[in-house]
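seq/struct pair 1
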Amino acid sequence: MSERAERKVITGKVVSNKMDKTVVIAVQDRVQHPLYRKTVLRTKKFKAHDENNSCNMGDVVEIMETRPISKDKRWRVVKIVEKAVIV
């Protein structure tokens, strides 16, 4: 029997929690432009499953790749790394 591969884990910021049990995570990545060699900030958004609706806007969370949960959801929230400061 073969062993399962390690699942991807990424860290990002919650940009929306308006859906039930779903949050949208924005992950920023710095990449170098292939021709001009300038560093560009690239943002990618992922929908992640939040079972307890515990995430709020601005929280920094860790998400892990998982089986398809719905049409767009392939990630789930593992833990909240940093809670957002409410002013």
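seq/struct pair 2
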Amino acid sequence: MLMAKLEFLVGNTPLADLDKLGKPFPHVRLLAKLEGNNPAGSVKDRAALSMFQGAIRRGELTPGTRIIEATSGNTGIALAMIAARLGYPMTLIMPESMTIERRASMSAYGAEIVLTPEGQSMEGSIDLCRQMVAEGRGINFDQFSNPDNWRAHFHGTGPEIWRDTEGEVTHFVSAMGTTGTIMGTSRALKAFNPKIRVVGVHPEEGAKIAGIRRWPEAYLPKIYEREWVDEILSVGDAEANEVTRRLAKEEGVFCGQSAGGAVAAALKLAATIPADQQATIVVILPDRGDRYLSTDLFR
């Protein structure tokens, strides 16, 4: 009988060939890394586990210590899962605009949920988190400045992509939130082959795409280092939503809006690659679509 402890099931997610969406570009192979296959359903399982392990290893986290974290959803769910598994109390702070599915998932794992006003956006949740930690109510992993965030992808996501494409990956595309995924994966892939192009995805000005951020300068994640990203593409709400729906209806891949935005950017990228040049584009699909059923995304 095959079995493993939950923490050993994080990572090693599959690559799906998006041959239908990529059909207009026969010289490009478009591969999607299905991070929704992680135990708590998103790419953030990797960073959450890495941050817990790092804090325990350094002696920062002792039995009974409460963790307080600001989150837009997926990181919170992943942290709540690992906290439940390892037996730590968890408080998660998030904007009240986040979907009911995300709140319910965190609560199911036993986490305390604190909501901040929608108008304050994610910055308001970060400010409240800092205040609660300053008051001595717990410790904060701070996914935005914690190198254990990107290290999860340096040791996991990047090597997996290189292995599973047999070294044929030429481009890597990732939405940018905390930027941990793109920072760690870029470091790993460029160590294998410095010629691999790394493309980040931002929302257009005014667009609101769950999981993708265009940060004000004062809140830019400290782990973000611009030199690890070769190019940044912007996507809008409409195109992110359209590609998300196409992924479900044409490819049978049920994912969230940030995945649709990333694939939309990957298709833009594919259109720029000369027809006489073979390419393999790997794009991260951060989570599953069931976290968005209460929204208008699939209606």
